[in-house]
Automatic annotation (TrEMBL):
A divalent metal cation binds at residues 67-68, 106, 332, 335. It comes from the Bacteria. Keywords: Metal-binding. NCBIfam families: YbgI_SA1388. This is GTP cyclohydrolase 1 type 2 homolog. InterPro entries: DUF34/NIF3 (IPR002678), DUF34/NIF3_bac (IPR017221), DUF34/NIF3_sf (IPR036069), N-reg_PII/ATP_PRibTrfase_C (IPR015867). One of its GO terms (molecular function) is metal ion binding.
Length: 372
């Protein structure tokens, strides 16, 4: 077991919720402090407020991972006798780093919106609002037959060859490779000044652009040749689609009133706001955690019977009525599902890396509203 530093923790986490998934202008990443230090205790929270930082101090936390960035707008001043400035001062004094994962965590596969869809027991879940299609590359490499299996395994293990639910997908064709080692070469096969002919395998596979460097490094390490012949081609077809929100179906149809109660129970909220006729029938459900006002038309066009999102505006509710779209608003705070979700994720990832670290889920209540 080893104590990780902050960079190692965040590098792990960003494999799950990479920064490039975030919406333009989102304020994600390290916001306060440094990652260049050992991390013994880490805390997961939805919001960073002064009483949350006090909780972190009490539990001797080194790193806070938050969903909502505490610094979202440019700072004009930090006044330490006011709550906001005092919060920042406490973090700095107690060497607490704060890292924010916002829309990248919303968009990530298995992230906030998937946790909400799972809590609502949705089936056949898909992305509601596509925001990013992963570019794909075609990798072609020429390998002596004796090492084809090793190279195929290396590039597959590094992330190449994923098509749907299949991994390590390649196409292989055999042929003859020729080369003439010149002065200064140290050939695996043959000798300087003599033209060599070798039975080789042409291995082709598909590679997500984000892992291209990793795949090529793995290929080069497994390949026996001093100079490896390979090609990388851009592809017009796209890889995995990422986006905000999810859409899926309930196991059985129910009334809007029954569904509203289902939302309350599943998301553990004391009350919900409902737009639509309570007796209307619903089965297809769209959901976006947090404020999803701007995506009401996408929810309607997706064929959803009901849209679950927070912070619904008065006039947007009127728009929903005119569109004939039912809406259930459980509030913004339902994104609290990220606390247990991120904690469980990081516990698993850290255990796999044999990291010696305690992961604590904040117990501080950051819901600003009291329901009477």
């Amino acid at each position: 077991m080893k104590t990780p530093n902050g960079y190692e923790i965040i590098q792990l986490f960003e494999q799950f919720a990479p920064k490039h998934l975030a919406m333009e202008g989102d304020k994600i990443g390290l916001q306060i402090g440094t990652l260049n230090k050992p991390i013994h205790r880490m805390m997961i929270t939805l919001d960073v407020l002064e009483h949350v930082v006090d909780e972190a101090i009490e539990h001797e936390i080194d790193l806070i991972i938050a969903h909502h960035p505490p610094i979202f707008r440019p700072l004009k001043h930090i006044v330490t006798d006011q709550p906001y400035g005092r919060m920042i001062e406490k973090c700095i004094k107690h060497n607490i780093a704060i890292y924010a994962a916002h829309t990248n965590l919303d968009i990530a596969k298995g992230g906030v919106n998937d946790w909400l869809a799972e809590a609502l027991q949705l089936q056949n879940v898909d992305v509601l609002v596509p925001t990013y299609e992963e570019p794909l590359k075609k990798l072609v490499v020429y390998v002596p037959r004796t090492h084809a299996d090793a190279v195929r395994k290396a590039i597959g293990d590094a992330g190449a060859g994923h098509i749907g639910n299949y991994s390590h997908c390649t196409f292989n064709s055999e042929g003859m490779g020729t080369f003439l080692p010149e002065e200064g070469a140290n050939p695996f096969i043959g000798q300087q000044g003599k033209l060599e002919t070798v039975e080789e395998v042409r291995i082709e596979t598909i590679v997500p652009a984000r892992v291209q460097r990793k795949v090529i490094q793995a290929m080069l390490q497994a390949h026996p040749y001093e100079e490896v012949a390979y090609d990388v081609y851009p592809l017009d077809n796209k890889g995995t689609t990422y986006g905000l929100g999810r859409i899926g179906t309930l196991s059985e149809e129910m009334t809007l009133q029954q569904f509203a109660q289902h939302v309350k129970t599943s998301l553990r909220v004391p009350t919900v706001r409902v737009v639509g006729e309570l007796t209307s029938r619903v089965r297809k459900v769209a959901v976006i955690g947090g404020d999803g006002n701007k995506y009401i038309h996408q929810a309607k066009m997706s064929g959803a019977d009901v849209y679950v999102t927070g912070d619904l505006y008065y006039h947007v509710a009127h728009d929903a009525l005119m569109l004939g779209l039912n809406v259930v608003d459980p509030g913004h705070h339902v994104e609290k599902v990220m606390k247990e979700g991120v904690a469980n994720l990081l516990k698993t990832m850290c255990a796999q890396q044999k990291f010696d670290i305690d992961i604590y889920v904040s117990q501080a209540n950051t819901e600003p509203f009291t329901f009477i």
